[in-house]
Every structure is written in C-alpha cells, then in structure tokens.
Amino acid sequence: MSSIARKNDDRPLDWYRVRLDTRDIERHFAKRLLLAFDSAYLDAGEPEHMHLYMASRRDGGADLYLSPGAMPAARALAHRFHAEPCTSPTHPLLLIGGGRHMPSVFGAGPAAQQTYATPDENMLTRGVSAELA
User: Fold this and answer.
1) pTM tops 0.85
2) Which domain of life, per UniProt (predicted)?
3) Contacts 24+ apart (CB under 8 A), 21-28
C-alpha cells in the first residue's frame, strides 16, 4: 500500500479538508490559513497544481480544501491547521489560493461547477454563498 491514507473502500485520500464553524470564521481562522498557504505556495516556487479551495456549508461554516498537488509543500500547514484527509470533493468549490496556471478541471467531480475568484477582504468572513450565486 502506498503512503497515501486510504478509506475502507480503498479509495485514496489525497485531499485535505479544514472544517470551519461560524466562530472560526469570525475569528479570521480562514484568513490565517490563506496567508500561511500563500507563503508556502511562494516558498515552493508557485507549483502549478498547488491549490486552496473553499466551499460554504448550510450551517454557516465553510470547508477549506488543500488539493493533492499542495502536498508535500503544505504538509506542515495541513498539520498546523488540523486538516483531515478526505476524498475528492463533489460539490462546487471556489479557488482562493494558488493556481498560477488555472486548470481546466479541478477539485470536484465531473459534473461540478468550477468557480474562480480573487479573495477580497471580506469574502472569508461572509462565506462563499454570495460568490457562487
């Protein structure tokens, strides 16, 4: 078996997710993670496949996803922010970090929407529902 974590059904877990509740968002936890990601991205030489995505949740929280290409450059960051291995997301994602070259398909399953945005000062505190509308 490879060093990549696997679920019971043997699907590789090559994505990492940080779950944020509304208190985390109010405390600017997402902004700190984005700044740390940007630093790791620049330190790694802006890898083409290193991305950070965001998806809002119905409960007012958000999930941040580190793409498989973010590892190993963001491994310390994933540990620091308590990211958990997960399978590829199947819902729409908002690209908020990395992506020097925008990929044509990323993050989610084949039927998912891809949305690109430049993070602004308030996006990480208000969630992404407005951005995806």
Assistant:
1) no
2) Bacteria
3) 21/59, 21/60, 21/61, 22/59, 22/60, 22/61, 24/61, 25/60, 25/61, 25/62, 25/124, 25/125, 25/127, 26/125, 28/124, 28/125
Residue 104 in tokens: 């044509």
d(CA 126, CA 121): 10
> Strands, E, within 1-133: which ranges?
15-20, 51-56, 62-66, 84-86, 93-98, 114-116
**How do residues 74-90 score in pLDDT, each as one tens digit?**
999 999 999 999 988 88
Neighbours of 119 (CB within 10 A): 19
